[in-house]
């Protein structure tokens, strides 16, 4: 899949961006160590030395910052190309079926669509909230998910089962993909919050490292909250409105206590608790991040675990094919 190759190139570009930042940090630390004893001498000669080196050092820092910006922009540009190729792959999957259909008739196609939602939300919301610092984990996530999809879940394109012949399927899945994408990016922000907080508390935050370059902890917490607040109403519509309407069309009942329906509701409850705790109890930081990750874990279990643990016992068992 060409999208996977371009995602890999985008990931490498963000790795270069991070490496260039570490180089700047090491250079700054070295100059500070050299300048400290010189200024401590207190003589005019030391002042002359510092002034003489300020110009070249400033130019070097500016060049280094330009390199960082260049690699960052390359990473984002490659991610945009990868998303376009990813979308083309989804469209081709649908057009390659006989008859032509929407490209989410089995677990392999659901995985492709869900991964597309993650990268799309990163790009769309990243422009608004300046999330380029999330480019490294997002592209890494895409590489892993697409690799696992191809290796473990691939099935040839085929016709939809009768239960999927409904325009409510299109509405339901599109809403679920958008919401899941926002939840996934929010989960990444929550995970980065916990990792950075732990590094700070243990005194292991390396200057110039990736964690050091991330926004401060309150900003990470705020980004995670905004992403979840964006995704929650869309998930509400997907799980509690479009899903039941589709179920009534397919099986004659709005609610069947099917495992996927139950776990979709569980995910909704966890995310509702997260937003409620933030709004009323004032939960911030670690507690909120843990709840957000629990919500994402229920989302993943609903998406993957139901098919493996319940199999044919679910009315959605076709999704595992």
Describe the structure.
It is a single chain. With 321 residues, the protein is an all-alpha fold. It has a domain of 160 residues. Helix content is 79%, strand content 0%. It has 9 helices and no strands. α1 packs antiparallel against α2, α2 packs antiparallel against α3 and α3 crosses α5. The longest helix is centred in the N-terminal third of the chain and has 52 residues. It is globular. About 9% of the residues have low confidence.
Summarize the structure.
With 321 residues, the chain is an all-alpha fold. 79% of the residues lie in helices and 0% in strands. It starts with a helix and ends in a 12-residue tail after the last helix.
Summary keywords:
321 residues, mainly alpha, 9 helices, 79% helix
Instruction: Indicate the low-confidence ranges by residue numbers.
Output: 28-55
Strand content: under 5%
| Biggest sheet layout | none
* Helix vs. strand class: mainly alpha
Order of helices and strands: HHHHHHHHH
How does the overall form come out from the CA principal axes?
globular
Rg, rounded, reads: 24 Å
């Amino acid at each position: 899949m060409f999208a996977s190759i371009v995602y890999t190139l985008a990931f490498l570009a963000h790795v270069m961006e991070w490496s260039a930042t570490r180089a700047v940090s090491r250079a700054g630390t070295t100059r500070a160590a050299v300048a400290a004893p010189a200024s401590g001498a207190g003589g005019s000669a030391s002042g002359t030395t510092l002034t003489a080196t300020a110009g070249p050092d400033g130019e070097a820092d500016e060049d280094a910052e330009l390199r960082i910006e260049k690699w960052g922009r390359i990473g984002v540009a490659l991610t945009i190309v990868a998303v376009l190729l990813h979308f083309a792959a989804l469209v081709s999957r649908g057009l390659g079926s006989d008859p032509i259909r929407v490209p989410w008739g089995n677990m392999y196609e659901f995985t492709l669509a869900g991964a597309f939602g993650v990268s799309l939300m990163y790009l769309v919301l990243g422009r608004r909230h300046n999330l380029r610092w999330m480019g490294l984990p997002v592209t890494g996530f895409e590489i892993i998910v697409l690799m696992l999809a191809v290796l473990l879940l691939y099935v040839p394109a085929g016709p939809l089962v009768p239960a999927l012949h409904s325009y409510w399927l299109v509405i339901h899945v599109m809403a679920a993909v958008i919401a899941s994408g926002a939840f996934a990016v929010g989960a990444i922000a929550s995970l980065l919050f916990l990792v950075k907080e732990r590094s700070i508390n243990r005194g292991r935050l390396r200057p110039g490292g990736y964690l050091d370059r991330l926004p401060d902890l309150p900003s990470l917490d705020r980004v995670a909250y905004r992403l979840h607040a964006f995704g929650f109403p869309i998930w509400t519509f997907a799980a509690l409105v479009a899903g039941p309407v589709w179920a009534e069309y397919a099986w004659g009942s709005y609610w069947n206590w099917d495992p996927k329906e139950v776990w979709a509701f569980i995910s909704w409850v966890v995310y509702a608790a997260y937003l409620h705790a933030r709004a009323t109890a004032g939960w911030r930081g670690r507690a909120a991040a843990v709840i957000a990750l629990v919500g994402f874990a229920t989302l993943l279990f609903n998406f993957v675990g139901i098919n493996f643990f319940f199999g044919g016992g679910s009315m959605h068992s076709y999704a595992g094919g």
